[in-house]
Write a structure and sequence with these properties.
eleven-stranded parallel sheet, 37 strands, Udp-n-acetylmuramoylalanyl-d-glutamate--2,6- Diaminopimelate Ligase, Chain: A, domain 1, homotrimer, 323 residues, alpha/beta
């Protein structure tokens, strides 16, 4: 730490738009050019950047993490008192901790358990026999189906659905017979899930979202899939049923992972990656065709349909020239 | 059937984790290795696998379908009684069958009709003049907009929206004018729709989801599209407006179907398939680039931008060698 | 205008299915063949098509826009009266205009403001201190989180979530630390958003959806992104955090835009386009591999893994032949 201990900080701000009274941070080198002129009253900086800033500073190897902690301390979610809003409905057989809050329009069904200090915002549904650990936060309009189990400190954004039926259908004579979805979903501690993401219940055994997993918005997790601890999955990714995704995996937006395959620990999949087979070694993996002008893309993509033929013709020429 | 008729089965289980008292099944050859040691009290098997199992067995050509039927019989959804929960709101002009259930927080608007034995879970919305056939099940938090029509035995998972406005906009002087969406949505018998899937109402004529169609989670069906009977569409697929998808079509996850095109009956589209033009013959169709290490992918994808040029250079060489 | 001023029109219809009493339109040349035999009582036509129709007609350069206006006039949304449904919950500190409607099951939290003539359908949530301009319409089951600001005439379809937490996580020792999301979302006038679309609140500064923007269903807008005025984004598109999308941009279905990049005004991205880098010139851009039979696709996509090697071998041959 550097600077006057009497400096008063009221809020966090971006380096380029900070006003006096705020603390900013520099984590991305792209923003280094704003450092000299920033109006922030204090800065969170790495040791390498510390010499570029004359004011009060918190110097740390990981400015982004320290910023996150400072921001959380300066802007905590509003406090709440335990209780059940008169417009909520809690089944008499449900157990709600006395210091948990059930918001207006929310429904807690028979046999459900809501742990200490949970905050259930408006218009949520906690299904029959679902169980929530301590300090969970369901912002609003979240739906947990029957028997879903959440660990502690789970944060669910609006529109999240956990425990809907998996896509289990069996073909018979040109029709689809529904396969009952009898498993549930178990969500570990410190999981955060983004708006309108869906996690299906297992067909027979539980779908697993392990501790520390972070899912962005509009992600689909199929029935019986496992997402290993501390993995992070960005927006609009789909993980098909019974996929086994390891720990510390990062999957960028709009990628797809096939069903019944494995992705080992410490794999990174880039945006729109098409994961059709198991990934058995840690590393960074990609697929897809980068953007081009439509005019160029049309010419090239037409040729893709003849790539195998081109390869054969190339080999033929090589053979001719060798002879 | 084979074995002691007095065998008591209480539940279904996977072949590898079955305990005594449960019945398991073997449909996927990958799991054959678990057969000998399974602790199941009975097994559902194909004739080819029957000799590998000494215990009680149900032998059938289609073990998965028989399993589905056994599971449904052993684990039916909990029974319910007809009635309107005191925290539901039903408009006086709506008609709700006496043996249908309207859950807490649900709203049934003016003129809507809810058929016999329907189960409407918590926090659903049944819009003005919507009509539900017999035995529909809306798990929770489902929204049906005005005038939407459901057939019989339709199952809608949480977060489903049917009948939102289609994406109808007309350009005028650099702005978009809204085109009123005056059609509705008709959903046939035995349709099942996954969590947070959206089906838009037609611009002028109705969007059609024909009987027996199964839609997974987070699927988008555009205005005026038709999904033919007994087709199955996996997670995160988008079907654009006025697309005409035939019967018995299977579309794997994250595929996209362009607007105003036709996909004939009995077509299969694999995952992430990009369907820009009509598919006029039954068969299996694919597109996309399979995953590779980022290092390899970069080298190859850069070359894609020059594929047309490569093809021309190849033809040039062939010409030279012919001369 | 052409024809008998006494002609009575009651509704709009498609050119091929119009009955007497309806007005149809011809905007797409594909439908010209239906013109002669249409039973419509009046037709909206371009000057070029006017001679092909003998009946009453509205002749205009932009038949689709005029049709939109006529349809809106003939089929306005049902009128409503101001008020709060007895089953809605409005916090005493919220301000709801006397001519706005709050539907059953909806919740308006502390400090929120709902402007004149707003229609809030059933089961919506208006978060703490959110502000809605005049004439907004939230069909049903919409969730606005705290402090979100809507302009005038904003139309939100069911399941829309605005202001959920952005995907802000910082890595520390193999775990993810949550980065508080302290910005909000500002939505301009005349914006329309489709069912189950999500717009995240900014990490520090607001996410911006400028005036006249149209978003289709299941679109994801990441934290701190900006969508410029009068841009239109089709279904299942994802725009990552801090992306800066210009004005009058059109993005077709399932395309993805990377974070922290810019797409300038007047760009068109075709369906499934993979926008990894900034697009700095107006124009039409594409990517992806068009559909083929699975058999052909397999042969070609295998070769893609060797495209760089093929290019080198081709260059090698060219060199040999030059020598």
């Amino acid at each position: 730490m550097r600077g006057d201990a009497a400096t008063r900080i009221q809020r966090v701000a971006t380096i380029q738009n900070a006003a006096p009274g705020s603390i900013a941070f520099l984590a991305n080198p792209k923003y280094r050019r704003y450092l000299t002129d920033s109006q922030a009253s204090a800065m969170i900086l790495s040791p390498e950047d510390a010499s570029g800033w004359q004011g009060a500073a918190l110097v740390t190897k990981n400015p982004y993490v320290l910023y996150a902690r400072v921001a959380a301390a300066l802007s905590p979610p509003p406090p709440f008192q335990g209780g059940v809003h008169p417009r909520a409905w809690v089944d008499p057989s449900a157990k709600v901790a006395s210091d948990a809050w059930i918001g207006p329009g929310s429904v807690v069904e028979a046999g459900a358990e809501v742990g200490a200090r949970c905050f259930i915002g408006p218009n949520c549904v906690i299904g029959r026999d679902a169980k929530l650990g301590e300090d969970c936060r369901l912002t609003a309009s979240v739906t947990l189906c029957h028997e879903v189990v959440l660990g502690k400190r789970v944060l669910l954004n609006p529109g999240v659905v956990i425990g809907g039926d998996g896509f289990g259908i069996a073909p018979e004579g040109g029709r689809w017979i529904k396969v009952p979805q009898l498993g549930s979903v178990r969500v570990g501690d410190d999981v955060e899930i983004g708006a309108n993401t869906t996690v299906d219940r297992g067909a027979l055994e539980d779908t697993l979202i392990e501790e520390g997993v972070k899912l962005d918005n509009l992600v689909q997790i199929g029935h019986g899939a496992r997402i290993g601890a501390h993995s992070a999955i960005a927006g609009c990714v789909a993980i098909a049923g019974s996929a086994n995704v390891g720990k510390h995996v990062m999957i960028a937006g709009m990628a797809g992972v096939n069903g019944h395959i494995e992705v080992v620990d410490n794999v990174v999949i880039t945006a729109m990656g098409m994961v059709t087979n198991s990934v058995t070694e840690p590393g960074v993996y990609s697929s897809g065709i980068p953007l081009d002008t439509q005019r160029n893309w049309r010419k090239n993509s037409v040729r893709f349909r003849h790539l195998d033929e081109m390869a054969r013709r190339l080999a033929e020429l090589e053979k001719k020239l060798k002879d």
